[in-house]
Amino acid sequence: MSVTTLTTPLYTGTLPARRKFTIIPRLDENPKLVAQAQTAAGKIAVIAMAVCLLSWRKPRPIVFLVAVALVAFLPAYRRMVLAAASLYWVLTSGLLGQDVIGQVAAEAGIHVPHPAVWILSGLACVSLVFGFGGLWIRKQGGGIIGRRPVLCLGVFFCLALGIAGTSAVPAGIRTGGWVLVAPLSGFFWILAYALRDCQRKSVSAHGIGSMLATLWTGTSSPTPMLKGPSHALKVEAVDAREFAVAQLKGVKLLTWTMVLVLIFVAIQFVLLKAAIPTLEDAIDRNLTGSIPVWLCWESLTGSFILVVLQITIYGHTIIGGLRLLGFKVLRNTYAPFRARTIAEFWNRFYFYFKELLVDHFYYPVYLRYFKRSPRLRTVFATFAAACFGNAFYHFGRDVNYVAQLGLWPALTGFQVYLFYAFLLATGISISQVRGKRRQASWFRTEVLSRVTVVLFFCLVHIFNDERRTVSLGAHFAFLFRLFGL
Amino acid sequence: MNTRNELRAHIQRLLADKGDREPLGDADSLVLSGRLDSVDILQIVVFLESNYSIDFAEQEFDQEDFDSIARILALIELRAPAAGTPQA
Fold it and tell me: Between 20 and 30 A from A158 (CA), which of A166, A212, A328, A391?
């Protein structure tokens, strides 16, 4: 049995003699353009294109564009520029959770003049404790923090969240808990990758500075698209030619992103003009029984397409920017609708989130348990990653719900997403255990398999609802309504 | 078949399953280049577990050790109980 049916659609090796048509020209494969991009005029042209291609972003990424210009013209200072810019991106990323700590402190009647300072100090404390702890244990050998630093970080985070989210705990202690929990929530996976590197090899300050460039868009998503300090240094361009190729790939991807943004806006406009409700509205309206079946289907498919486009645009923007900074990174989304299996769709749809779950949940479980039973081994590891890991990631990311609702209501309200994660893990497990069917007909391989995969993801999307106030029953009622039940 | 050829044949089968029939050198990047992803690495893990009795549960696991044939051979050399000798 094959371990997986996932394919990697990201391979960018030499092309076959007969080239396929592409909407965006292959700039990075034109030797003249690559040579041109290494000259002063070429670098200015690339920067000018970056300015145009990112002009739709609000606020304007001024610091990012200055960083691109500096790394292009002062390659010797590249890492220093990235470290300085990264510090700015950390402070402005939205991952520090200033809002949450401000809200909690205000409710507790505690005045916090500069929440960001408190949160940064909390993050620094956690980083120092685990960084030095991990290094010390590694040096001494054998301790749990040295052997399983990410597991320890997870346990620590859960305990801190438990204290911060329990109303019976005195307000001062809870606020102190949030000082740790809020930044940890945002930086958990960046820290996890750094600790993992720390466990294996020496981690340089350059690597950490470079890795934090993943935050250049000011993203509020904690999924790093540079998988640790060591990975960041491994994928950086090592000479002028590689840098030029990376930048041209960045320009190409950002141009494609512009096209996708236009498609996204057009679809949103059509949905608005046709008065098709969002999926959340449709689920809520269905509870009163006032929504026709056809509108349910239109709402679901519209919402699903918009989410796929949204994730694609989000990933392409970050990766395009990282390429402009000279990182030879793989795309986050690559033609998900070409997937023939559920596992392949997941891989193509959100590559770095899948990698995060595989690195931190799938590998540790797969390498330790049920070695004598290949199917059980695969299914168990898949559930550890796609169900438990997925749920842990989202609950830990959205700690603002714990701050707003309290720990128990936030946990019980999480039932819908937990069920979504369970469905996803079940689908991926079945997809992996079945493996590839080599003897299937063309229609079955090229058409039926793709339609089935898209239908599966479209239907489970009903439960991909991160609100904590709508019950699982309401989502099932919507699912039944789709089929006229 | 020696270790290198056996490993190469296994990886080429994995790549062929993904439609990648490009030449494969010993030093060519597999993971960082995107030719294989993190879950594909598990196919190689299973191959090493069954052929060379390497137990990754007991040892540090680093995906980058699988980035090329040369690095995997170095891993076998370092970690296999009887390095380079396939199990019966």
Answer: A212
For A347, the closest chain B residue by CA position comes to B37
Residues A322-354 pLDDT 10s: 999 999 999 999 999 999 889 889 889 999 999
Residue type present at position A89: W
Residues of B in contact with A230 (CB under 8 A): 64
- Interface touch A234/B32, C-beta < 8 Å: yes
pLDDT in tens, chain B (88 residues): 588 888 999 999 989 888 888 888 889 999 888 888 877 888 899 899 888 888 888 767 888 889 999 999 998 988 876 654 544 3
Residue B85 lies in a domain: no
| A346: closest CA of chain B, how far (Å) | 12
Q: Are A250 and A222 part of one and the same domain?
A: no
Split into its structural domains, chain B has a count of 1
| Confidence (pLDDT) at A257 | 95
Best to test chain B binding among A3, A327, A350 (most B CBs inside 10 Å): A3
Q: Per-residue pLDDT tens for A269-306? A: 999 999 999 999 999 999 887 789 999 999 999 999 99
Minimum CA–CA partner of B34 in chain A: A11
Q: pLDDT for A419-471, tens place per residue?
A: 999 999 999 999 888 866 666 787 887 888 899 999 999 999 999 988 888 89
Structural domain harbouring A277: 245-482
> Where in the sequence is the domain holding B69, given as residue range(s)?
3-79
CB contact under 8 A, A199 and B60: yes
CB contact under 8 Å between B38 and A359, yes or no, is yes
Quick one: pLDDT at residue B1?
59
Cβ of B36 and A14 within 8 Å? no
Distance from CA of A467 to the nearest CA of B (A): 31
Residue B43 lies in a domain: yes
Cβ of A367 and B40 within 8 Å? no
Of A211, A235, A259, which marks where a domain is finished? A235
* B45/chain A closest Cα distance in angstroms: 9
Residues A231 and A251 both lie in one domain: no
A361 shares its domain with A258: yes
Angle at Cα A58 formed by Cα A55 and Cα A60, nearest 5°? 55
Angstrom distance (rounded) from CA A38 to CA A73: 10
Is residue A184 located within the same domain as residue A267?
no
Establish if B84 belongs to a structural domain: no
Contact between chains at B57 and A367 (C-beta distance less than 8 A): yes
CATH at residue B53: 1.10.1200.10
- Smallest Cα distance from B40 to chain A, Å: 7
Verify whether the Cβ–Cβ distance A363 to B33 is below 8 Å: no
